[in-house]
Write the structure tokens for this entry.
Amino acid sequence: MFLEIEEGDNAPLTLTGAKAAVAVPRVVFKLKPADGGYRLLLSNTKAAAPRYDIQSLRLELLAYSATPVRDGDIGPLEVNAAYRRGAADYFQTAPPTVALWGVLLVAVVGLLALTVRLLKKTTV
């Protein structure tokens, strides 16, 4: 790892130490569920990140050796029948052009309604 600092017009820095964080690409399961299988749930935008007191379990978690997952170990992705998407979820995943056309459609309908209303007032 290299760190390059461009000081420019500033006074030189005196570095006494450095710290780095490394993300460990693995999922740890401590206990096997009663039904005998594991489930990994995806795509719930309302779910908040879990908060654990990892510091107290740090040494225990790091003591586990990683076991690679083979293709036969994982079942296919399945739809969670209990999850229901809200209206806001559809707008978050929609491409920007859909939102643009929706706004334009609402504007056209509003202008047509205003035009009809004004025409009725002038003809009476």
In short: DSSP finds three helices and no strands in the chain.
